[in-house]
Amino acid sequence: MYYVLVGVQLLAIFFSVFSTILLIRLQSSIENRYLFIAAVCIDVYAVGYLQEMLFHTEEGVRTALSFEYCGLAFAALAYALFIFKYCNVREIPRWISYILFAFCVLVMFAVQLGPITNLYYSSFAISDDGIFPHAVTGKTPLYYAFAVFQAVIIISAAVTIFLRMKRTQHPKEKRKLAVLFAESLLPLFGLFCTITLNLGGWDPSPLILSILVTTISITLRGGQFYDTVSFAMQNLFQNVGSAVIIADISKNYLSGNKASERVFPELKNWQLGRRLSDLGVDLFADSANSDFERNGRYYKSSFTKLIERGRHIGYTIAITDNTDDKVAVESMRHLMEAADAANEAKSTFLANMSHEIRTPLNAIIGMSELSEREVSESVIREYNGQIKAAGKMLLEIVNDVLDFSKAESNKLELVPVEFDTADFLEGIINVENSRIGDKPIDFLVDIDPGIPKTLYGDDVHIRQIIMNLLSNAEKFTNTGYIKFTLDYERDNITVRLKGSVEDTGIGIREEDQKKLFTAFQQLDGKKNRRTEGSGLGLAIFAQLVTLMKGTYRLESEYGKGSTFFFEIELGAINPAPMANSERECINVKKLPAFSLYKTKADVTENVSKAEKPSAMSDYSAYNILVVDDNKVNVKVLSAFLKHFKVQADAALSGAEAIEMVKNKKYDLIFMDHMMPDMDGVETTKRIRALDDRYYHNAPIIACTANVVKGVEDMFIEAGMNDLVPKPIQLEVLQEKMARFLK
After folding, report:
1. Angle between the 141-167 and 94-112 helix axes, to the nearest 10 degrees?
2. Taking 70 as the threshold, does the pLDDT of residue 529 lie above it?
3. What CA–CA distance (Å, rounded) separates 346 from 344?
4. In sequence order, which residues have a C-beta less than 8 Å from that of residue 256 and are 6 or more positions away?
5. I need a labelling partner for 632 at 20 to 30 A (CA). Which of 128, 180, 319, 348 fits?
6. How far apart are CA 354 and CA 654, in angstroms?
7. End of a domain among 321, 340, 366?
8. How many structural domains does the chain have?
9. What CATH number is associated with residue 558?
């Protein structure tokens, strides 16, 4: 019987070595490496036990045991790590691995130092009872601790296989796991036999472990568990660039690859079964709402249901990093918005320019024609004054456009000359005072009299800088004051003028301030429609100041007013003060005649008399309504209508026009287009919507300075009957009246 058992042990060694060779030839993986280590440990254990069977002396058996435990101490741990990896158990904390490994090392050295320490065996003797002479030992707590350790490790591996077998729904995979589970029970059987059974000194554990590692190696070799496809799929799952998370049917976490842990680092410490909603991101959102942000990166998630034989068993969630795409799309969106805004601004600018140019032209041509038919010298003088004011307005608009065009093409040049400072400033102040006219605001001037008497610079463009700020303040200030302040700093022959224009006007919203010095911008366009101008004044101001090596800035509070500051650099020809006076803040509006620290006479104007034109048709029997927010335009059209013997009614807003047509039926309505609050198109629609046949049929003629392409179709579609463009001509007006007044 002894020799039979020796032959059996030789067979166990053969099986063990054979399995080791098979594992060497298998494709390398973390799981296979752990199994390879277990196989080598079992090889050492099997060879050592053969020595124990052959050596019958105490010294020989001790030597064999020492060799055995060099493998046996680590075999169970290596096998369990293989099972844990195969079953995809989360990474075991390193400190636990270190403790388990240290315990195995302790057992190995306890056996090596057995005769000295008696840590593993309390007593040691050779017994001849049994099949062959064998060691009879006294068991220490360390011996039983190691036996329990092996049992716990092997049972943990078996339980791990069993749990995975329960979770999987694939029948073929279930069969594979069932085989592995049965094989995992063999070490428990061997450990039980070693501790509890008396087999005449023979230990079946080396044979059982050799059979275990051999069967697993053969199945690995045959591709039953780790075939190439499975390995490739597992490798792809772990190393693919996109994050992938696996969830159960209840949307609980099951597994995730390395990329998913880069997106969600907390997954490294997660246990199976935790709800994915704890990540703070809805990974199951529909495609329109599946974008989310983590750590400054943008991701998009998509999920797919896992269906096994028609049954829903879980989800796979793919997470892609679309930061670059999002940034590119966002950049494109901003560029498109900027392009659209630029196109819209220029389109609005063109419409405004058509309106702004035709408005003074309407006054000029209309008043000119009226003055030709007037005999009263005082009335003619009034008409000519309005013609002159409208002409100046038109000239300013044209100059703004030309100057901006030059600035845009870098052709705007400075032409410096010598100029008298006091005369230069007086001219600006008197022009602005004339602009303000009878407007109920104060015009304050606070200028340092120490500014050099004669300066050297481009006086035309310096005047434009100051006038643009003053006219801008006058347009948007209806109560309170406008204050013009001018200081200076001097360095040898260089003078730095430091000016500001403060007003108590409407102010500017903070978000609009950055757009203010941009071309084609007119803020609150509808609200400020009564305000004339090209929308280029501040853009030209900014470019001129920059051209003069200066700086500018703005302080404003919406609803309370604004202050514009500028500094420009000039030369000083005569450094003497422009005036030997004390500095004072002057209210120009309260002076009958203003001069800067001196007196100056008023300037009178001569107006010529015109010829009297021929008579016009008589439409005195008809009621006509003129709707226009501009009083000058109302006056022009009403005066034209007087030549047709018509005393027209006037409305200065759309709302007022609606109330007037409710109270009086008009035979003809002239409707302005661009009016604040409610424009002519909206006013016409509301009149047409009133509940009476008259309102549906009353002739409404658009009377507008906006004559860009397509605008007439818009008026007709809104319910208007015809169009009279501004500037108004008597011949066109007579034609329309003849058509609509029977």
Report:
1. 140
2. no
3. 5
4. 243, 244, 245, 246, 264, 267
5. 348
6. 21
7. 321
8. 4
9. 3.30.565.10
Instruction: Say if CB 319 and CB 300 are below 8 A apart.
Output: yes
Within this chain, do residues 99 and 131 fall inside the same structural domain, yes or no? yes
Which of 231, 261, 286 terminates a domain? The answer is: 231
Q: What is the CATH number of the domain that holds 271?
A: 3.30.450.20
Which tens digits make up the pLDDT trace of 501-522? 999 998 888 888 777 776 555 5
Q: How many Å apart are CA 586 and CA 442, to the nearest integer?
A: 10
Full domain range(s) for residue 733: 624-740
Shared-domain flag, residues 19 and 120:
yes
Q: Is there a single domain that holds both residue 221 and residue 310?
A: no
- pLDDT surpasses 80 at 195: no
Cα(396)–Cα(470) distance, rounded to whole angstroms? 14
Residue 576 carries which DSSP code?
Answer: E
Q: How far apart are CA 630 and CA 625, in angstroms?
A: 14
- What's the pLDDT tens digit per position in 42-60? 888 888 888 888 887 888 8
First to last CA, the chain: 139
* 274, 207: one domain: no
Helix/strand/coil percentages in the chain, nearest 5: 50, 20, 30
Give the orientation angle of helix 186-196 with respect to helix 205-221, to 10 degrees: 170
Are 438 and 495 in a shared domain?
yes
The per-residue pLDDT for range 548-565, each reduced to its tens digit, is 889 999 999 988 999 999
Among candidate residues 260, 267, 223, 217, the one with its CA nearest the CA of residue 238: 260
Quote the tokens at residue 378: 């005082």
Establish if 335 belongs to a structural domain.
no
Are residues 575 and 629 both part of a single domain?
A: no
Q: Are residues 430 and 579 in the same domain?
A: yes
Mean pLDDT across the stretch 105-118? 86
Does some domain include residue 702?
yes
Question: At 710, which CATH number?
Answer: 3.40.50.2300
Say what the pTM is.
Answer: 0.37
Count Cα atoms within 13 angstroms, Cβ side, for 118. Answer: 7
- Binned at pLDDT 50, 70 and 90, residue 602 comes out as very low
Specify if 374 maps to a domain: no
pLDDT tens digits, one per residue of 462-501: 988 998 899 889 888 999 999 999 999 988 788 999 999 9
Q: Does residue 293 share a domain with residue 227?
A: no
Tell whether the model's pLDDT for residue 528 goes beyond 90.
no
Average pLDDT taken over every residue of the chain: 81
8 Å CB contact between 348 and 356: no
DSSP 8-state assignment for residue 527: T
471 assigned to some structural domain:
yes
